[in-house]
Amino acid sequence: MRLPSSRRGLLCVALGGLAAQPAASQALSRPALAQCRAGTLYLTIDTGWGREAEDIAAAMRARDVRATLFVADEPDYRGGRTLGEGWAPFWRARAAESHAFASHTFRHWYFGADPGPGRVRYASRRGEGAVVLDGAGLCAELARPVDALRAMAPEARILPLWRAPGGRTSPNALRLAAACGLRHQGWTANGFLGDELDSAAHPNAALLARALGAIRDGEVLVMHWGVRSRREPYGLVFPALLDGLLAKGFCFATLPAQGA
Question: Where are the beta strands (DSSP E) in the chain?
Fold first, then answer.
């Protein structure tokens, strides 16, 4: 999932303000844990292509870290699909570990300019096509990954949240999804961990140092279970990220139902 240059420029300002909400606005939703002397963080993981999924999951399990997992049906590193039956044991294990789940759309296409009232343009960046969705169509697109997940892991805890691919929404997409009962969840500017960036220009060591220096209380972090275009897998530095943040006194929590 190659990050286009146009998207890099939107990372800190996309999502209509949702991605960069002040940490103070989230204070009421955080768990009151005495040991969280530095505050609470919300780790979110988008599907990606899954190359590092088992290692990332093992690192969280070893440190008792919970995350919110946004699921979509994307091509995986094994030549299958991330919501295919081959991934059922993985998703069941994450549900059993008490991670939370939410929709990342089913086809993982991108939203463009609204073509008219009550309509959203939804198009593939891999040449698979484009459609215009009405409210019912958008609700169905957002429900499909959750329905597929429930079929594999009936015990999974699903939050009434969604995240657009690339974090790119439109006014109509936000309104129509809200009518489905779903709120869009972005990430904070410091929470962008950079695992989609080119590793030659943004090596793991630099991303790790930036994150440990910049992340503050209430941040919503975003990463993936592996990104195809990144030559230096971010999963290699993920345990060090968790260790560093935990050592600073941060705790991790799944997102509240109303989002953050």
Answer: 39-46, 68-71, 100-103, 110-111, 120-123, 130-133, 157-162, 183-184, 220-224, 250-252
The sign of the dihedral angle between the CA atoms of 52, 158, 13, 20 is: negative
d(CA 202, CA 230): 10
Exposed (0-12), middle (13-18) or buried (19+): which is 243, by Cβ within 10 Å?
Answer: middle
Nearest to 146, CA basis, from 137, 156, 131: 156
174-186 per-residue burial string, b: 16 or more CB within 10 A, e: under 16: bbbbeebebbbbb
Q: Which two tokens stand for residue 41?
A: 């963080």
CA distance 191 to 248: 16
**How far is 257 from 260, CA to CA, in rounded Å?**
9
- Residues linked to residue 211 through DSSP beta bridges, in sequence order: none
| 53-97: pLDDT as tens digits | 999 999 999 999 999 999 999 999 999 999 999 999 999 999 999
